[in-house]
Amino acid sequence: MNEINTKYVSLVAFTLLVGIFYTTNPGTKDFILFTILTAMLIGLLSVCKHYYIKDENSLKEQIIYMCLSMVLLSIYYILVLEIISFPLDYKLFILIWIGSILSVLRRHLNLSYMENAVLLITVITIFSVSVYDDYKNRPTTIIDFYFQNIINETTYEGLQNLYVDSERPNFTKETYNELSPFLNNPPRRFHLPVLLEYAGGRTILLVTEYSEEYETLQIRNISILPEELVSLFK
Protein backbone atom coordinates (compact mmCIF):
# COMPACT_ATOMS: atom_id res chain seq x y z
CA MET A 1 0.00 0.00 0.00
CA ASN A 2 2.84 2.41 0.86
CA GLU A 3 4.48 1.74 -2.51
CA ILE A 4 1.20 2.51 -4.31
CA ASN A 5 0.81 5.75 -2.34
CA THR A 6 4.38 6.77 -3.17
CA LYS A 7 3.82 6.22 -6.89
CA TYR A 8 0.57 8.19 -6.74
CA VAL A 9 2.19 11.12 -4.91
CA SER A 10 5.13 11.07 -7.35
CA LEU A 11 2.79 11.18 -10.33
CA VAL A 12 0.79 14.05 -8.85
CA ALA A 13 3.97 16.02 -8.03
CA PHE A 14 5.35 15.47 -11.54
CA THR A 15 2.08 16.54 -13.16
CA LEU A 16 1.83 19.68 -11.00
CA LEU A 17 5.40 20.82 -11.67
CA VAL A 18 5.19 20.25 -15.42
CA GLY A 19 1.70 21.77 -15.56
CA ILE A 20 2.78 24.92 -13.73
CA PHE A 21 5.76 25.32 -16.04
CA TYR A 22 3.55 24.80 -19.12
CA THR A 23 1.32 27.70 -18.07
CA THR A 24 4.30 30.06 -18.57
CA ASN A 25 4.18 29.38 -22.34
CA PRO A 26 7.72 27.99 -22.64
CA GLY A 27 9.45 27.08 -25.88
CA THR A 28 9.40 23.43 -26.98
CA LYS A 29 13.08 22.91 -26.09
CA ASP A 30 12.68 24.40 -22.61
CA PHE A 31 9.53 22.37 -21.98
CA ILE A 32 11.27 19.12 -22.92
CA LEU A 33 14.30 19.94 -20.76
CA PHE A 34 12.11 20.86 -17.79
CA THR A 35 10.10 17.66 -18.18
CA ILE A 36 13.29 15.56 -18.28
CA LEU A 37 14.78 17.31 -15.23
CA THR A 38 11.53 16.92 -13.29
CA ALA A 39 11.24 13.24 -14.21
CA MET A 40 14.84 12.71 -13.06
CA LEU A 41 14.08 14.44 -9.75
CA ILE A 42 10.97 12.36 -9.07
CA GLY A 43 12.81 9.20 -10.09
CA LEU A 44 15.78 9.89 -7.81
CA LEU A 45 13.51 10.70 -4.87
CA SER A 46 11.64 7.43 -5.39
CA VAL A 47 14.85 5.41 -5.72
CA CYS A 48 16.32 6.95 -2.56
CA LYS A 49 13.19 6.14 -0.60
CA HIS A 50 12.93 2.60 -1.97
CA TYR A 51 16.52 1.60 -1.24
CA TYR A 52 17.21 3.59 1.94
CA ILE A 53 14.05 3.35 4.00
CA LYS A 54 13.79 -0.23 5.23
CA ASP A 55 11.59 0.52 8.21
CA GLU A 56 8.74 3.02 7.82
CA ASN A 57 8.67 3.39 11.60
CA SER A 58 12.32 4.43 11.83
CA LEU A 59 12.55 8.11 12.67
CA LYS A 60 16.26 8.16 11.80
CA GLU A 61 15.69 6.79 8.30
CA GLN A 62 12.82 9.20 7.68
CA ILE A 63 14.88 12.24 8.74
CA ILE A 64 17.93 11.22 6.67
CA TYR A 65 15.70 10.63 3.65
CA MET A 66 14.17 14.09 4.05
CA CYS A 67 17.67 15.59 4.15
CA LEU A 68 18.64 13.72 0.97
CA SER A 69 15.43 14.96 -0.62
CA MET A 70 16.30 18.57 0.16
CA VAL A 71 19.75 18.13 -1.41
CA LEU A 72 18.16 16.74 -4.59
CA LEU A 73 15.56 19.55 -4.65
CA SER A 74 18.33 22.15 -4.32
CA ILE A 75 20.31 20.61 -7.21
CA TYR A 76 17.11 20.51 -9.28
CA TYR A 77 16.44 24.18 -8.50
CA ILE A 78 19.95 25.20 -9.65
CA LEU A 79 19.80 23.09 -12.83
CA VAL A 80 16.42 24.54 -13.85
CA LEU A 81 17.66 28.07 -13.19
CA GLU A 82 20.95 27.61 -15.06
CA ILE A 83 19.77 25.49 -18.01
CA ILE A 84 16.30 26.91 -18.60
CA SER A 85 16.56 30.23 -16.72
CA PHE A 86 13.22 29.52 -15.05
CA PRO A 87 13.17 30.98 -11.52
CA LEU A 88 11.43 28.42 -9.31
CA ASP A 89 10.44 29.59 -5.85
CA TYR A 90 13.10 28.07 -3.59
CA LYS A 91 11.22 29.29 -0.53
CA LEU A 92 8.36 27.01 -1.49
CA PHE A 93 10.72 24.03 -1.49
CA ILE A 94 11.96 25.02 1.97
CA LEU A 95 8.43 25.39 3.32
CA ILE A 96 7.38 22.00 1.93
CA TRP A 97 10.52 20.41 3.38
CA ILE A 98 9.98 21.94 6.82
CA GLY A 99 6.34 20.87 6.76
CA SER A 100 7.38 17.32 5.84
CA ILE A 101 9.96 17.19 8.64
CA LEU A 102 7.40 18.35 11.20
CA SER A 103 4.89 15.84 9.86
CA VAL A 104 7.42 13.02 10.31
CA LEU A 105 8.14 14.16 13.86
CA ARG A 106 4.43 14.31 14.65
CA ARG A 107 3.89 10.74 13.39
CA HIS A 108 6.80 9.22 15.31
CA LEU A 109 6.72 11.13 18.57
CA ASN A 110 4.10 10.91 21.26
CA LEU A 111 3.23 14.60 21.36
CA SER A 112 0.70 16.26 23.59
CA TYR A 113 -2.01 18.59 22.32
CA MET A 114 0.11 21.61 23.24
CA GLU A 115 3.19 20.20 21.48
CA ASN A 116 1.17 19.54 18.31
CA ALA A 117 -0.09 23.12 18.51
CA VAL A 118 3.52 24.36 18.70
CA LEU A 119 4.37 22.44 15.51
CA LEU A 120 1.35 23.94 13.73
CA ILE A 121 2.20 27.45 14.92
CA THR A 122 5.77 26.93 13.69
CA VAL A 123 4.57 26.08 10.16
CA ILE A 124 2.15 29.02 10.12
CA THR A 125 4.85 31.39 11.38
CA ILE A 126 7.40 30.31 8.77
CA PHE A 127 4.82 30.60 5.98
CA SER A 128 3.62 34.01 7.18
CA VAL A 129 7.13 35.45 7.42
CA SER A 130 7.92 34.10 3.95
CA VAL A 131 4.85 35.84 2.49
CA TYR A 132 5.72 39.04 4.37
CA ASP A 133 9.30 38.89 3.08
CA ASP A 134 8.10 38.53 -0.52
CA TYR A 135 5.74 41.48 0.00
CA LYS A 136 8.46 43.72 1.45
CA ASN A 137 10.96 42.79 -1.28
CA ARG A 138 8.64 43.33 -4.23
CA PRO A 139 10.05 45.82 -6.77
CA THR A 140 9.01 49.40 -5.97
CA THR A 141 11.27 51.26 -8.42
CA ILE A 142 12.34 50.79 -12.01
CA ILE A 143 15.79 49.70 -10.82
CA ASP A 144 14.30 47.04 -8.51
CA PHE A 145 12.08 45.82 -11.33
CA TYR A 146 15.00 45.65 -13.75
CA PHE A 147 17.28 43.63 -11.48
CA GLN A 148 14.56 41.37 -10.03
CA ASN A 149 12.66 40.64 -13.25
CA ILE A 150 13.98 41.91 -16.57
CA ILE A 151 17.65 40.99 -16.27
CA ASN A 152 16.76 37.37 -15.44
CA GLU A 153 14.48 36.87 -18.44
CA THR A 154 16.24 35.12 -21.31
CA THR A 155 13.22 34.18 -23.43
CA TYR A 156 10.81 36.16 -25.57
CA GLU A 157 7.78 34.68 -23.80
CA GLY A 158 9.17 35.48 -20.35
CA LEU A 159 9.82 39.13 -21.18
CA GLN A 160 6.46 39.45 -22.92
CA ASN A 161 4.71 38.27 -19.74
CA LEU A 162 6.16 41.28 -17.90
CA TYR A 163 4.13 43.64 -20.10
CA VAL A 164 0.67 44.86 -19.20
CA ASP A 165 -1.97 42.75 -20.96
CA SER A 166 -2.94 45.44 -23.48
CA GLU A 167 0.65 45.90 -24.68
CA ARG A 168 1.76 42.27 -24.98
CA PRO A 169 0.64 41.86 -28.63
CA ASN A 170 2.76 44.90 -29.55
CA PHE A 171 5.96 43.32 -28.22
CA THR A 172 7.26 41.32 -31.18
CA LYS A 173 10.08 38.81 -31.46
CA GLU A 174 11.92 41.27 -33.69
CA THR A 175 11.85 43.82 -30.87
CA TYR A 176 12.99 41.16 -28.42
CA ASN A 177 15.93 40.17 -30.66
CA GLU A 178 17.03 43.80 -30.80
CA LEU A 179 16.80 44.30 -27.03
CA SER A 180 18.05 40.94 -25.69
CA PRO A 181 21.81 41.63 -26.16
CA PHE A 182 21.42 44.62 -23.84
CA LEU A 183 18.73 43.73 -21.31
CA ASN A 184 20.56 40.74 -19.85
CA ASN A 185 23.57 42.85 -18.87
CA PRO A 186 23.82 45.53 -16.20
CA PRO A 187 23.60 49.02 -17.75
CA ARG A 188 26.44 51.48 -17.34
CA ARG A 189 24.17 54.17 -15.89
CA PHE A 190 20.52 54.74 -14.93
CA HIS A 191 18.53 57.85 -15.79
CA LEU A 192 15.03 57.87 -14.31
CA PRO A 193 12.79 60.74 -15.44
CA VAL A 194 9.68 61.40 -13.33
CA LEU A 195 6.97 64.02 -13.87
CA LEU A 196 5.64 65.59 -10.65
CA GLU A 197 2.33 67.35 -11.21
CA TYR A 198 1.23 69.90 -8.57
CA ALA A 199 -1.94 71.81 -7.80
CA GLY A 200 -2.32 74.72 -10.18
CA GLY A 201 -1.14 72.73 -13.19
CA ARG A 202 2.63 73.19 -12.83
CA THR A 203 4.76 70.14 -13.55
CA ILE A 204 8.33 69.46 -12.47
CA LEU A 205 10.71 67.13 -14.32
CA LEU A 206 12.90 65.14 -11.94
CA VAL A 207 15.72 63.10 -13.48
CA THR A 208 17.64 60.78 -11.18
CA GLU A 209 20.73 58.68 -11.79
CA TYR A 210 21.88 55.54 -10.00
CA SER A 211 25.29 55.98 -8.41
CA GLU A 212 27.39 52.82 -8.26
CA GLU A 213 29.74 54.53 -5.83
CA TYR A 214 27.04 55.33 -3.25
CA GLU A 215 24.60 52.58 -4.36
CA THR A 216 21.64 54.95 -4.34
CA LEU A 217 19.76 57.40 -6.56
CA GLN A 218 21.00 60.96 -6.97
CA ILE A 219 19.43 63.97 -8.69
CA ARG A 220 20.76 64.68 -12.17
CA ASN A 221 18.31 67.39 -13.12
CA ILE A 222 15.20 69.06 -11.68
CA SER A 223 13.29 71.77 -13.48
CA ILE A 224 9.81 73.17 -14.19
CA LEU A 225 8.50 71.99 -17.55
CA PRO A 226 6.96 74.49 -19.99
CA GLU A 227 3.24 73.96 -20.63
CA GLU A 228 3.84 72.97 -24.27
CA LEU A 229 6.00 70.04 -23.13
CA VAL A 230 3.65 68.99 -20.35
CA SER A 231 0.83 68.58 -22.86
CA LEU A 232 2.84 65.85 -24.63
CA PHE A 233 2.53 63.57 -21.59
CA LYS A 234 -1.21 63.99 -21.02
TrEMBL record:
The chain crosses the membrane at residues 7-25, 31-51, 63-84, 113-132. Keywords: Membrane, Transmembrane, Transmembrane helix. This is Uncharacterized protein. It comes from Desulfuribacillus alkaliarsenatis.
